[in-house]
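Reopening this one. Same input as before:
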Amino acid sequence: MKEILNATALEKALKRLSHEIAERNENLADVVLLGVRTRGVLVAKRIQKCLQESEGVTLPLGILDVTLYRDDILTCDAELIGSEIDFSIEGKTVILCDDVLYTGRTVRAAISALFAHGSKMGRAAKIQLLEIVDRGHRELPFRADFIGKNLPTSSHEKVFVKFQETDGEEGVFLETENE
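Same output, byte for byte:
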């Protein structure tokens, strides 16, 4: 496995992304973070912490489970953990946070989940997308508003964003199928 970003570079990317959020969103009081379960939650928490440190504001943070909205999981064994959003998104800018943007199917599922829960949470004014890595190979017409690293890959490669909390190490890694 090849290291693309070490822990320090990943931290710098997260800080840069948080600064970009502050620059693009004039009123941070109207911004909420939704982490796409599972790794997107860690990304959202890191972004929330960076914004607390740099801007002195704590953005609301929710967890979005997209399992039931995916079109590429055809099994009844899919584990549904559930979304955890205890605030309204009515009129807010929602920043969907995830680790790796690949085909765009997770993004589509996340937007479908948001729309499906709209009656309970309200209607967002705007949805923005934050990804640590954009590896290309889109099947659906989505692009991220905030990207930590563009990493062109082949279809025989996999990208992993690892966090200390879950993996015992930190960074972005590239693995070729033959490894």
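So the earlier flakiness isn't reproducible anymore. For the record, The mean pLDDT is 93.
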